[in-house]
């Protein structure tokens, strides 16, 4: 079997499924487990630090581990960096068969820090049986020194190991998410997958197959296509499902448009106000966010109204990353109010002639569907829980497309990015 520690909502698992392999995921978070079950993934809800290792000995082909990143991430207090010497000590002790976790945990500033040592407890027990054949681990960049410690130990056990930082955008993910990666194998040379994309497209040549340009948010979300919308301000909905609730100020934006006679309400559908995807002006669209129902026409305000440029802002802080829709997103992370990702707009050109004078729309919170697509999950992935719980799962997940490219060599699968369709 393939053992997936800290399995989360299924980033690694979805990648394995696409490659024709199933894993069993160990996860503690209730809503991540419910998401996994809804997605048809084998799941054991347990505290990994307490679960015994003997059930896996003699039957494990590969081990995957993405320990919780909150203690190490730039989005949190980063107490994992303070606890790092204790985590290194735990890894060294576990590799030698000594379990000192209780004493070390008592000294940690953040109890989650020591979870990064748990994979070594499993690896030490499996090594006695000549397992696993391969290992893949992922974390935020600040964990790279710890992965190098793992690598040094694994090499003494006969593994070929590679560690380093990879940018998800180099592998077709519409997000410049940088992660510390460890790849190890007993049967082949461990090395990172060849990048498939680059910030600037590279043509095929005698020196290589070339690389496509980084995938933009617009491409990933289908903006500009006839069947996919741009960001919307929706009337109705709420945390239980349906369209996103109004963010602050959106009601005033809609009210201003209504007072100017800029929108019409269809009696059978809620109303959506959005900048036109292809041409100038605003349009109204009735119904849900994925398609315009045939029974509800979409009258145009004016063909001369100014068009908006949309960008994604990574959080509410002054140093937030702001990226145009024509670029990949910055790293998506959620967890508290300051880390909300929002769509922001500015006029592409000043209004001219008799264009309707509409104020720029208020920032619009990204939807879970959009966030999932930017993580390369399918558009219909069954996220469980309320909006906050769903966003937390998405932000913590491994992008499945990156995971697939990391795992394909270990499984002997020739993966082509075009074959790994996620946003259907």
Keywords:
11 helices; alpha/beta; 7-stranded mixed sheet; Rossmann fold; globular
Residue share in helix: 25-40%
Strand content: 15-25%
Q: Using the 3D structure, state the CATH architecture of the domain at 2-212 and 397-419.
A: 3-Layer(aba) Sandwich
What general outline do the C-alpha atoms trace? Answer: globular
Please count the beta strands (DSSP E, at least 2 residues each): 16
Helix count, DSSP H or I runs of 4 or more residues: 11
Helix/strand-derived category reads: alpha/beta
CATH class of the domain at 2-212 and 397-419: Alpha Beta
Strand order of the largest sheet: 3-2-1-4-5-7-6
CATH topology of the domain at 2-212 and 397-419: Rossmann fold
CA(first)-CA(last) distance: 29 Å
- Poorly predicted regions are 233-306
Main beta sheet: strand number and arrangement?
Answer: 7 strands, mixed
Mind telling me the CATH superfamily name of the domain at 2-212 and 397-419? Vaccinia Virus protein VP39
Instruction: Give me the strand/helix succession.
Output: EHEHEEHHHEHEEEEHEHEEEEEEHHH
Based on CA atoms alone, the radius of gyration comes out at 24 Å
Q: If you average the pLDDT, what whole number results?
A: 78
């Amino acid at each position: 079997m393939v053992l997936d520690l800290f399995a989360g909502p299924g980033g690694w698992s979805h990648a394995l499924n696409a490659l024709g392999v199933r894993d069993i995921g160990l996860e503690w978070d209730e809503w991540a487990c419910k998401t996994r079950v809804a997605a048809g993934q084998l799941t054991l809800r347990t505290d990994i630090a307490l679960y015994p290792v003997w059930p896996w000995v003699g039957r494990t082909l590969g081990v995957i581990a993405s320990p919780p990143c909150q203690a190490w991430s730039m989005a949190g207090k980063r107490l994992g960096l303070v606890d790092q010497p204790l985590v290194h000590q735990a890894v060294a002790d576990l590799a030698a068969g000594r379990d000192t976790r209780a004493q070390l945990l008592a000294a940690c500033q953040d109890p989650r820090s020591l979870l990064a040592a748990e994979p070594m407890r499993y690896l030490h027990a499996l090594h006695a049986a000549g397992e696993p054949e391969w290992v893949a681990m992922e974390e935020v960049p600040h964990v790279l020194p710890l992965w190098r410690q793992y690598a040094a130990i694994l090499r003494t056990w006969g593994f070929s190991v590679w560690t380093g930082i990879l940018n998800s955008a180099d592998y077709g993910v519409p997000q410049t998410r940088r992660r510390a990666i460890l790849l190890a194998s007993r049967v082949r040379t461990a090395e990172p997958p060849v990048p498939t994309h680059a910030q600037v497209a590279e043509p095929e040549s005698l020196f290589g197959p070339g690389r496509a340009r980084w995938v933009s948010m617009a491409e990933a979300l289908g903006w500009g296509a006839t069947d996919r919308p741009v960001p919307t301000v929706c009337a109705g909905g709420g945390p239980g499902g349906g369209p996103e609730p109004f963010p602050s100020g959106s009601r005033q934006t809609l009210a201003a448009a209504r007072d100017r006679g800029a929108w019409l309400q269809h009696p059978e559908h809620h109303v959506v106000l959005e900048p036109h995807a292809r041409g100038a002006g605003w349009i109204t669209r009735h119904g849900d966010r994925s398609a315009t129902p045939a029974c509800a026409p979409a009258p145009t305000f004016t063909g001369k109204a100014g068009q908006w440029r949309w960008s994604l802002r990574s959080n509410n802080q002054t140093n937030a990353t702001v990226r145009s829709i024509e670029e990949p997103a910055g790293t998506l992370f959620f967890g508290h109010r300051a880390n909300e990702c929002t769509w922001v707009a500015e006029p592409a050109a000043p209004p001219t002639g008799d264009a309707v004078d509409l104020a720029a729309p208020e920032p619009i919170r990204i939807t879970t569907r959009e966030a999932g697509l930017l993580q390369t999950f399918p558009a219909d992935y069954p996220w469980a829980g309320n909006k906050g719980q769903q966003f937390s799962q998405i932000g913590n997940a491994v992008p499945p497309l990156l995971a697939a490219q990391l795992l394909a060599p270990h499984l002997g699968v020739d993966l082509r990015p075009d074959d790994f369709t996620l946003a259907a």
